[in-house]
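Justification of resources, computational component.

The compute hours requested in this renewal are based largely on the per-chain cost of generating structure records like the one below. Each record pairs the submitted sequence with a full structure-token output. That output is archived, and it is also reused by downstream analysis tasks.
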Amino acid sequence: MNTTGMQAAAIAAVLALGGAQSALADSDRRSDTEEVADLIYCYARGTDAIGDATTNTSPRDKGLAIYRGCFTSDAEFRAWFPQQPFNSQTFPDPSTTQAYIGPAAWADFVNGVFRGNGYDFTQHMLSNVDVSIRGRTAKLTAYLNASHVVSGSTVGGVSQCVAVANGTYSLTAKKIGNQWKASKLDLTLITFNPVFGCAP
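The structure output for this chain reads:
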């Protein structure tokens, strides 16, 4: 191979290496994005564990164990219910509602809401999940559609109550070592309405 050919081969090798490194960086970024997105799915699994007072002997403890896998020990949780003012559906002003610090405090709150309304099951469905990452911090937003059920008394029969909630989750996360953990979660609810059978 002449000198020109060798130079061309060297340039091609460098370009190929650069492309491989770029692809690896893209792959890492996608992996981070997926890991951050999984935090909100983890949250939904934990919340539905608390909502399941039928097959879980201790719904609060089952949900808390899941929360601890995806939230930091000092994570902040806040919720705005319908008609409670908030200035933005995503990342609202945190000073306008109560903060619950740590997964246990939030599990207690969620359990109190669900047991107080007599729900036997809940099912939280998420959509429009959007993740942005800057270095070792991330922000996520997602839409919520959740069903809350008080079961009926006959097999295959109608439920006593179904209430549906819609809203937006805003989550902040940080990478601790090689693991992403959520450090803040806000929930703004635009509806929490009885579909049938529930007290208003």
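Residues 3-196 form a domain with the Nuclear Transport Factor 2; Chain: A, fold (CATH 3.10.450.50). Residues 20-27 have pLDDT under 50 and may be disordered.
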